[in-house]
């Protein structure tokens, strides 16, 4: 369901996009560095889950309706920014005694999975990306419908994105392994993640201010 003539260009474009630092890469890398590979893997799958949801929305045309509604976009931007601010504030308030133990990462991994899903779904740029990017590679030469082609393109994009993020987790997680055994770092790792969430919130809210201006 993908035009083979367009496939090389599509793959090249996707690889280029994956290499551009963004909120998702920042969240996954910082999670892996702060809490270890397992948490980073869960964050990666959270990002992939939201990507699949956005792919389905794009294929069904729902996301196109939302993207064309400026009020909906503003609500998404503000909601996404406020949600990330709350996560940042919660992390900053957590004291050293609340720093997660290495042996108890299962709960934290599930939390980062949910946060990765929600933060990406509340990022209107991700929504617009799927609406504007995937249709560029829908071919009239195929018998498959545009929705079927967008679904196939989106699935391929998510597979490549997940593979890239897992590689990122492996690299960053290895670098951060020594940090996880450092008592001083572990006592302040929640504050580190809080700063990351504040950066992500500013990222979203700044885009809202730019659109208003």
TrEMBL record:
GO terms for molecular function: amino acid transmembrane transporter activity. The keyword Membrane applies. It is a multi-pass membrane protein. This is LysE family transporter. It comes from the Bacteria. It is found in: Cell membrane. It comes from Shewanella insulae. The chain crosses the membrane at residues 52-76, 117-138, 150-172, 192-210. GO terms for cellular component: plasma membrane. The keyword Ribonucleoprotein does not apply. Its main location: membrane. Keywords: Cell membrane, Membrane, Transmembrane, Transmembrane helix.
């Amino acid at each position: 369901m993908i035009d083979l003539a367009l496939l090389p260009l599509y793959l090249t474009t996707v690889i280029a996009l994956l290499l551009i630092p963004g909120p998702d890469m920042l969240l996954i890398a910082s999670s892996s560095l702060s809490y270890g590979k397992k948490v980073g893997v869960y964050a990666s799958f959270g990002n992939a889950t939201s990507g699949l949801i956005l792919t389905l929305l794009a294929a069904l045309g729902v996301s196109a309706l939302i993207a064309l509604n400026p009020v909906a976009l503003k609500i998404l931007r503000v909601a996404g920014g406020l949600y990330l601010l709350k996560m940042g504030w919660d992390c900053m308030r957590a004291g050293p005694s609340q720093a997660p133990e290495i042996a108890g990462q299962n709960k934290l991994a599930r939390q980062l999975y949910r946060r990765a899903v929600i933060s990406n779904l509340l990022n209107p740029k991700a929504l617009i990306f799927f609406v504007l990017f995937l249709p560029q590679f829908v071919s009239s030469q195929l018998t498959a419908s545009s929705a079927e082609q967008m679904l196939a393109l989106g699935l391929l994009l998510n597979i490549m994105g997940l593979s890239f993020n897992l590689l990122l987790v492996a690299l960053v997680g290895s670098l951060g392994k020594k940090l996880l055994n450092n008592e001083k770092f572990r006592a302040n790792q929640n504050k580190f993640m809080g700063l990351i969430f504040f950066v992500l919130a500013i990222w979203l809210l700044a885009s809202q201010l730019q659109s208003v201006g």
